[in-house]
Amino acid sequence: MDYKNWRHVFKVDPAKEISDESLEKICESGTDVILVGGTDGVTIDNVIDILLRVRRFSVPVALEISNVESVLAGFDYYFIPSVLNSRETKWVKDLHHEAIKEYGDVMVWDELVAEGYCVLNPDCKVAQVTNANTDLTKDDVIAYARLAENYFKLPIFYIEYSGTYGDKEIVSSVKEVLNDTKLFYGGGITTVEQAAEMAQIADTVVVGNIIYDDLKQALKTVEAVKGVVDE
Length: 231
Ligand SMILES: CC(C)=CCC/C(C)=C/CC/C(C)=C/CC/C(C)=C/CC/C(C)=C/CC/C(C)=C/CC/C(C)=C/COP(=O)(O)OP(=O)(O)O
Ligand SMILES: O=P(O)(O)OC[C@@H](O)CO
Ligand SMILES: [Mg+2]
Prior knowledge:
Elements: E1 8-12, H1 20-27, E2 33-36, H2 44-54, E3 61-64, E4 77-83, H3 94-103, E5 112-119, H4 125-130, H5 138-151, E6 156-160, H6 168-177, E7 182-186, H7 192-199, E8 204-207, H8 210-213, H9 215-226
Parallel strand pairs: 1-2, 1-8, 2-3, 3-4, 4-5, 5-6, 6-7, 7-8
Helix pairs in contact: 5-6, 7-9
Bound molecules: the ligand CC(C)=CCC/C(C)=C/CC/C(C)=C/CC/C(C)=C/CC/C(C)=C/CC/C(C)=C/CC/C(C)=C/COP(=O)(O)OP(=O)(O)O, SN-glycerol-1-phosphate (1GP) and magnesium ion.
SN-glycerol-1-phosphate binds next to strand 8.
């Protein structure tokens, strides 16, 4: 399934322990993809481990690159984040420039999918690592979404509230201004109600930490998201 049609995504953090039994449930849940990624502690060893274990199942698997050292062949897609509201160019384009300088000749460009992140929870790891300016109004976030779609032509705009449930009004306002760029929402989904609510607005809903905190609830979000049909 093309990433443009994904509705539900489980984000599996290679730096976190997960049993084979839990991973099987996640892979067989009906989710559209397993997105392997985390802000820190991601190494080639834990990425290989998770890739081999997920590959036993038919679900697509994508790597969300957080550092070049942990990239390996064998994923269906490679998602490349740029944190648009980072105060440091490193997280917007410098690491990317370095990676392309080194590997540009051998890159399979069609497998790469660029994501424009807007990180809105000041307390989350990714906000802190990337020194994101999270003190943004609704209009600021809308402007980042327009920058992503109309200026940079990014295929994905990702509203990231990692660890906390986001502001529905901001997400809705962003959705209204996007046409071709897909809107990913991620952050703090712990109930079926939240999953359904964000699925009514965003193109794609990303569920992460609840996998590790309450697997049963996590599995229920798949049905909740898939049950929301476009009017
Ligand atoms: C074999 C093969 C296919 C080779 C390809 C060659 C190659 C190296 C291609 C790379 C191309 C490229 C341009 C790479 C960019 C490199 C790079 C390092 C970019 C920086 C990415 C970036 C901005 C990372 C910052 C962190 C971030 C946005 C991570 C995404 C994941 C995320 C937000 C997780 C959520 O946080 P979490 O860790 O879950 O937090 P908690 O633990 O608190 O839950
Ligand atoms: O872990 P949670 O809070 O569910 O967030 C999901 C994802 O957006 C993290 O990058
Ligand atoms: Mg996480």
